[in-house]
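Possible regression after last week's pipeline update?

I re-ran a chain I had predicted before the update to compare outputs. Posting the input and the new output here so someone can diff against the archived version. Not blocking, just want to make sure nothing changed silently.
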Amino acid sequence: MIQELLIELGKGIGRFFLHPAVYITILFSVLIGYYRVKRERRQLRTRILWGWTEAKRLMLDGYIWAIMLSVISVAVGLVLPISWLYIFSAWMILLVLLFMYQAGSPIYAIALGVATLYMMDVYNWSLDIFSWELNGLNITNEAIVPIAILAGLLLIAEGALIQKHGSSHASPRLVTTARGIEAMEYITKRLWLLPILLVVPGDVIGSYIPYWPQFTLGESTFSLVLFPFVIGFQQKSRHSLPIQFFPRYGKKVWQLGIIVTIIGAVGFVMPLISAIAIALGVLVRFLITYIEYKKETSGTFAVSPQSDGVMIAGVLSDSPAEKMGLLIGERIVKVNGQKVTNEQELYEAVQINAAHCRLEVLDYSGELRLRQHILFRHDHYRLGLILVR
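New output (post-update):
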């Protein structure tokens, strides 16, 4: 019996790959990497990260969160309306296709799905999709509560992903300041795919797919569905270093997620409160994006030419610079005992001792530290540094 249940559950999980959002998200992750590498080669004459990085990290970055949210969803019993899942999927796919992931937070697609079903309820509209009849949703109905809780949980996951991975995949872009000098801004554009196990009510799926795994509780029948949730993120930093900006940004998002989850759960007492929680999540998530954007597009550039050293704008992976632990925003002030103020002086000083390179570096806190590394043949021509000139 247990073996048969596991087989049927495996079939249910396998049907995750029938959802078009999976393949669309994979394709657009590849496109993100392609256009990033194309821009980096055009501006910097090299790529910072491998072109398949975004596609490779699509599910790898968030698999822990996918497992955690699946356990919470099933354990708590977040029963989600099948009609909302369909409408939400349509909005989610549309936002991915737009390629503008400032609006890629799942809270927006969730709210649009709820608003669409509410309008369908108000005007008594219905849709027939693959023999399923989709009807509207009254926001004072208890069905809104699990949607609001899920919205909060996804915001928590989104914030955690931004906090942990936002700066590591920030791509430098060369810009010209108002004073006509070169500076760098950093762009993170990502898609994350979270396969989350959900509970949907009734035997609506089993009626059309006979071997879909189901279970009963009392007189009610439920089905388990492994559903793909897409988190899109796009933001740039220039006034702050990526290592400072993205963790701060992510923290604000997951803190908002906690608030939305708590308020959404209060909806068990009064469902309308859950609808308010979703609206609050949309408003505050938009304000976070807007306020952080305004902060970063005003003021000075964090990475621009300095008179007292050579500013590091990027570090190539698996390079001598990465092995020395050099970071974006640090300034190299001395190489092999020689003061340096530009790229030419730096590489001339490197060649003073082609076997052993010693760097004196000022970090972004202004503290001096010593870095050294044994250079092999021709390494002094390719330390793996992107520098502002």
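Follow-up from reviewer: compared with the archived run. The chain has two domains: 2-296, 310-387. Marking as no regression found.
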